[in-house]
Design goal:
The chain is mainly alpha-helical. 83% of the residues lie in helices and 0% in strands. 17% of the residues are buried.
């Protein structure tokens, strides 16, 4: 399988986890847990409320930065093979 794809997916997950653990304040962390629990039960929020959420954008930024870093690392690992 392509190392860039694996690196990108892993990087996005790690970036998301880092943002969730380190950059969300208490209120945002509680809101994230409530939203995630509701999504697991099949209740989804409107795209308007989701896009206006700072929690969403922080997590998305972490995932994108992690994705880019993971693709770069995966590309370097693929070159060394």
């Amino acid at each position: 399988m392509n190392m860039r794809l694996i690196g990108g997916l892993a990087g996005a997950a790690i970036g998301f986890a880092i943002v969730k653990a380190a950059f969300l304040d208490t209120f945002e962390a509680i809101a994230f847990e409530l939203a995630w629990a509701a999504a697991k039960q099949g209740h989804f929020f409107s795209s308007d409320s989701l896009l206006n959420s700072s929690t969403f954008w922080k997590c998305m930024a972490g995932a994108v930065v992690g994705l880019v870093a993971g693709v770069a690392v995966g590309g370097q690992l693929q070159k060394r093979r």
